[in-house]
Amino acid sequence: MIFSKQRDPRLVTVRRGGTLQDADHHRLAVWAADCAEHVLHLFEQERPGDERPRRAIELARAWARGELTMTQARRAAFGNAAAREVSGAAKQAALAAGQAVAVSHVPAHELGAAAYAIRAARAAAPEGEQEQTGRLECQWQRAQLPNEIRELVLDDQRLRNEVCWSVFDC
Q: I want to staple 62 with a disulfide (CB 3.0 to 4.6 A). Which of 13, 67, 134, 166 is the partner?
């Protein structure tokens, strides 16, 4: 569960009654794709040749560039389907990809992509290094944030950290 009980209007598009502008919605999708892609190798090591999570990330980016409609991107939940066939770090990485493409439909999925990527990094880390590895992944993600959405995402992490397995304590 990555959503809080109350929806943040800053993460709802203007068309749906919120305050999120299209340009920032697209930035959220690209950042989520970056987060998912950073750990994608953890899935691909376990399932070489399974392109579904990579394809989901590519479609998230294509949507952000205006090459796909939201409906076309939303149908591409390849990452989630791939996650059902693996476990551990590979599963978390595939879930991150599924969340990244879901940002096109629900902007608040941006934290899902980031949180699952952190969980993937933790799951792949050697015993005793999981927390530090997760913090490093979180710090890497924050370093990728465009200035235009930085405060929004950092505030969202603060507000939803507890429902995101407290992975944003970095």
A: 67
The reply to whether 70 falls in a domain is: yes
| Amino acid at site 34 | D
To the question of pTM greater than 0.70 for the whole model, the response is yes
DSSP 67: S
Nearest CA to 159 among 146, 168, 149, 150?
168
User: In degrees to the nearest 10, what's the CA dihedral of 81, 75, 50, 143?
Assistant: -90
| Tokens linked to 79 | 């990452």
Assess if residue 26 is contained within a domain: yes
| Gap between the Cα atoms of 33 and 19, Å rounded | 22
pLDDT tens sequence across 74-95: 776 666 889 999 999 999 999 9
Residue recorded with tokens 């999981």: 130
